[in-house]
Structures are given as structure tokens and as C-alpha cells.
């Protein structure tokens, strides 16, 4: 965890750099122009990005086998999507988070660490139950939710929420009587969160778990089963996608590999899987590349797949072979430097999941802060707690999360043309063993590092951060529809210099912030 003034400055530099390199958020004042795509058995409904103009949408009749697509935006800091709450709809931008389970809105923008962060928070919109004609129910309970990596205090944030029930829409998909949280107090959060992880622990005032968003979508026939696909794409992309109830074959290479969901290292509920190997592939002077691979066993194999965390956090047994193979050097503050020329090498950091290996191009894994002409950083830090594969890894893969069958389907991400969405049905083999339309060449990057500018001088007022999400405590087994309580996996503030390696994902936008959410 950064402790020196220099570390703080570098860390803080990232935020200003990303803010400087991105367009101002126009979401609060720009009218929406959504666009929809329809096909056999699905309805893909884009959710507009925070920065881009919206297109007109055509609503199609609902069917139980529809797939609902939400467009994501790559804001370098977090993946966000728009949700509309109440009648008439009140638009709110929230972070899409596979590391936590609850939907909540209205963080206290006055607790943001900088004026820029506070302004951005306000631009994300707010929900006012008094303006809804549904009418809403609530408040009828309250909870405190803590986020962050227990081994790193700089990532820890919290919110206190009161529960309401109202109509919630994602794209053209409307779900009635959805329970969600409205913040009464928050610390270190600058945007709401749409949690997409399952949970059995917690509920309203600790009572019976309530129906989470994905569960309600299935129960009301919006989708056939509790399944969604995550497509973050490359760091240079502006949009990705989350598809509820469907799989897009135009966004991956080869066949989807099914892996069972496992409990976290303390037995708690997470979207976690077993990692079988890590490796590094580097170019050589011969026509072929050379690969070094290392087996992963025991607790070191347990990794959470968390779209709300910017960089990946691994145990030393897993991370050190990667750092050594890349010749990375510890900067004394827990971050690892490499020559910027590495981002131009046609190599990769490789993560094995059984028979499937996800290769993360070095151009995606190396961060160029522009603070030095020759020094860049890796999207990897150490942790002694739950391991997390964050956006620095997830954007290289295509992930289909199946709550009903407690499985994750994995393939190498790519982008090869028009959407080709296959709706997911129900039952033990609901997710099709689909083969992607893309070729290996479609997954290859252009070979440039993700660039950010750092603060020009060591200035304590210049602040940056990175998102980190993770659940705090153990919970029961089995995937149900319950809300999360005090120890839910949620936004973790990582007051680090890590400018997010976040990429575009439909319905999601990357936020600069801490952990599962963003801490600013």
C-alpha cells in the first residue's frame, strides 16, 4: 500500500491523467437515443454510454428466450451502465460489478476526494422516490455494506442504504417491484453499483433475502434463466457489452469452456473459479514464441472474476513467476515497473482454466503513465486475501456467468463483426456449447500500451485511484436470489496509482475508484 509522498503523488496522478484524457460526462444533460437489435429469439438493447450520443430505439415484444444487451463504456476507471428507475423513468449511471450482489444508487457526492470527482458523481444522476408515480415502496429496511480488500486499508469503502421497491429498466427490459438500495450515507464512493454476483447472505434488515436484479429478470420472464455474458474488450475500445440471457458468438474465439463456480477462500459466495496455471509468452528470435508456464494449486488457485476491480490482485506464489519472467521491478510501494517497450512486444500473460487458456496481450497488461519515457507499470499487485482477476485480465476473455448451474463459460475475447446473439434457454445445459465466429487473428492487439498522463510534479492534492472489489466474509453455499449484507463483495477503493486497465463493456463503464466500486 502506498505510504510515501512520492507514492501518493504517482497514485493521485493517475486520476487526473484519466480525467484529462476523457471527455466530460454529458449523461445528465443529454437526451437518450437508444438503439435496439432484434433477431430470432432475442432482443439486444443497447444502454447508451455516458459520453456518446444516443440513438433511437425500437421496442420489440418480450419473449422468454430474449437476450437483453446493455452497452458498456470504457472510461478507463470503471464500467458503467444506465438504469432507469420509477415512473417516469429516472436515469442513473451505475458501475457494473461482478464482485458484489446489490443494486444501490445515490452516493453522497460531497464525500468525493476532489471537486472533479464530485462533479462526475453529480453527473451520474439520482433517484428521487417522491418523483415516481409507480408508486414506490419504502423505505422498509436498511443495511451497511463494506467494500475492499481486507489486506489493504486503502481499498476499503462503505455505504449505508435504505431499501425501496420500484420499477427498474435496463435498456428496454422492465422489471417490476425490484428491491434496491438508496444511500443514506457513504464513504469513498462516487457512483452507484449494479451488483451481478449471487448471494445467500443478508437481506433487508437481515431477514429473508430479497430477489436480486438477475433473479427478478428471470422470474418475470424477461430472460429464460439467470445467465449473463460479459464482454469488456480491449483498453482502447469505447464500448463493450453485457448481454442478459444470451451469448454473442461474434465476440470470442473457439468453444466456450465450462468451469464450475467455487466458493471464495473463506467459503463465501463469489463468482470465483479455479485457476490451473499462469504463464508468460514472449517473442523469440526464432519464428515461434517461447512460453513459460507454472501450475497453480491449493488456495492459490481460487480466483474471483471481478469487473469492479481495475488491476488484478494475486498471491505471491502466483504473481512472482509472472513478475520474474517479465523482469518487473518493485518500485518500493508494491507496484511493478517494466520498460515501456514491453507493451510493443507481441507477447502475453497467460491464465489457464482447465483446457482453456486466456492470453492477455502485453499491450493490455502494461500501463503507460507517461511520467517517464521508458518506465511503465504492470496491471498486477500482490494480496494476502482473496485473489481477484480484474479488468487487466477480464478484458482479454469472454465470460458467460450461469447462476442456475453454478458455472462460468470462458473463451478468448475477440471482435469480428455484427452481433450474433444466441439466446440462452433453461436447464442444466442452458448455455450452448457455442463456437465463436472469430479467428485467432481477430483477438490480436495492435501492440501499443494503454497511455495515461501523471501529475507533473509531486503534488499531494493530485489524487488517483483504482477500483477493487471483493467480498469480506464467509457465507452459506448454493446460489439463491438473496441480497447481500454487511460483508458483500463490493467496491473497494484502491488509493493506488493504478489508472485502470478498464475497457469497454456494454452497459458498463470503468470508473476510477476503489475496488468493487470506486473510491474517490
Automatic annotation (TrEMBL):
Annotated transmembrane regions: none
GO molecular function terms noted in the UniProt entry: aspartic-type endopeptidase activity
Residue ranges constituting the Peptidase A1 domain according to the UniProt record: 79-411
Annotated segments matching region Disordered: 126-156, 462-491
UniProt entry keywords in alphabetical sequence: Aspartyl protease, Disulfide bond, Hydrolase, Protease, Signal
Active site feature: 97, 306
Gene Ontology biological process terms in this record: proteolysis
Disulfide bridge partners, by residue number: 340-376
Domain of life of the organism encoding this protein: Eukaryota
Residues annotated as signal peptide: 1-28
InterPro entries referenced in this protein's UniProt entry, alphabetically: Aspartic_peptidase_A1, Aspartic_peptidase_AS, PEPTIDASE_A1, Peptidase_aspartic_dom_sf, SAP-like
Alphabetized Gene3D superfamilies for the sequence: Acid Proteases (2.40.70.10)
Family: Belongs to the peptidase A1 family.
Name of this chain's protein: Peptidase A1 domain-containing protein
Organism: Ophiocordyceps sinensis
Amino acid at each position: 500500500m502506498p505510504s510515501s509522498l512520492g507514492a501518493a503523488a504517482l497514485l493521485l496522478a493517475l486520476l487526473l491523467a484519466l480525467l484529462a484524457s476523457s471527455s466530460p460526462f454529458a449523461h445528465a444533460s443529454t437526451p437518450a437515443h437508444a438503439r435496439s437489435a432484434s433477431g430470432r429469439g432475442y432482443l439486444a438493447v443497447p444502454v447508451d454510454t455516458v459520453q456518446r450520443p444516443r440513438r433511437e430505439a425500437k421496442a420489440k415484444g418480450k419473449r422468454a428466450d430474449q437476450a437483453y444487451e446493455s452497452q458498456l463504456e470504457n472510461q478507463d476507471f470503471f464500467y458503467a451502465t444506465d438504469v432507469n428507475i420509477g415512473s417516469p423513468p429516472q436515469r442513473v449511471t451505475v458501475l457494473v460489478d461482478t464482485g458484489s450482489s446489490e443494486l444501490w444508487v445515490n452516493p453522497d457526492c460531497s464525500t468525493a476526494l476532489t471537486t472533479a470527482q464530485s462533479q462526475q458523481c453529480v453527473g451520474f444522476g439520482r433517484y428521487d422516490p417522491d418523483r415516481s408515480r409507480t408508486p414506490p415502496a419504502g423505505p422498509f429496511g436498511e443495511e451497511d455494506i463494506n467494500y475492499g480488500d481486507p489486506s489493504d486499508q486503502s481499498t476499503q469503502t462503505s455505504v449505508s442504504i435504505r431499501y425501496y421497491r420500484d420499477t427498474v429498466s435496463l435498456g428496454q427490459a422492465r422489471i417490476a417491484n425490484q428491491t434496491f438500495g438508496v444511500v443514506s450515507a457513504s464513504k469513498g464512493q462516487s457512483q452507484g453499483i449494479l451488483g451481478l454476483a449471487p448471494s445467500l447472505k443478508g437481506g433487508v434488515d437481515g431477514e429473508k433475502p430479497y430477489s436480486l436484479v438477475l433473479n427478478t429478470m428471470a422470474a418475470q420472464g424477461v430472460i429464460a434463466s439467470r445467465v449473463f455474458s460479459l464482454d469488456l474488450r480491449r483498453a482502447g475500445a469505447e464500448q463493450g457489452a453485457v448481454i442478459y440471457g444470451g451469448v454473442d458468438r461474434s465476440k470470442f474465439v473457439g468453444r466456450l469452456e465450462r468451469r464450475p463456480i467455487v466458493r471464495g477462500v473463506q467459503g463465501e459466495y463469489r463468482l470465483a473459479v479455479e485457476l490451473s496455471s499462469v504463464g508468460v509468452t514472449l517473442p523469440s528470435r526464432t519464428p515461434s514464441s517461447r512460453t513459460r508456464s507454472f501450475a497453480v494449486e491449493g488456495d492459490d488457485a481460487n480466483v474471483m472474476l471481478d469487473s469492479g476491480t481495475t488491476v488484478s490482485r494475486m498471491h505471491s506464489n502466483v504473481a512472482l513467476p509472472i513478475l520474474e519472467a517479465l523482469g518487473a521491478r518493485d518500485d518500493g510501494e508494491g507496484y511493478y515497473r517494466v520498460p515501456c517497450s514491453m507493451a510493443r512486444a507481441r507477447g502475453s500473460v497467460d491464465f489457464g482454466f482447465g483446457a482453456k487458456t486466456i492470453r492477455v496481450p502485453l499491450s493490455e497488461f502494461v500501463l503507460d503513465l507517461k511520467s517517464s519515457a521508458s518506465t511503465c507499470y504492470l496491471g498486477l499487485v500482490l494480496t494476502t486475501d482473496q485473489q481477484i482477476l480484474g479488468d487487466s485480465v477480464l478484458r482479454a476473455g469472454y465470460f458467460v456467468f450461469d447462476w442456475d448451474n453454478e458455472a462460468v463459460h470462458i473463451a478468448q475475447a475477440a471482435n469480428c463483426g455484427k452481433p450474433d446473439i444466441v439466446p440462452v434457454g433453461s436447464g442444466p445445459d442452458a448455455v450452448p456449447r457455442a463456437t465463436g465466429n472469430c479467428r485467432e487473428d481477430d483477438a490480436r492487439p495492435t501492440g501499443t500500451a494503454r497511455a495515461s498522463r501523471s501529475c507533473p510534479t509531486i503534488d499531494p492534492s493530485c489524487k488517483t485511484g483504482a477500483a477493487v472489489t471483493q467480498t469480506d466474509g464467509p457465507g452459506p453455499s448454493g446460489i439463491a436470489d438473496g441480497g447481500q449484507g454487511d460483508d458483500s463483495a463490493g467496491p473497494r477503493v484502491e488509493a493506488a496509482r493504478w489508472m485502470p486497465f478498464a475497457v469497454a463493456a456494454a452497459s458498463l463503464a470503468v470508473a476510477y475508484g476503489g475496488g468493487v466500486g470506486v473510491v474517490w
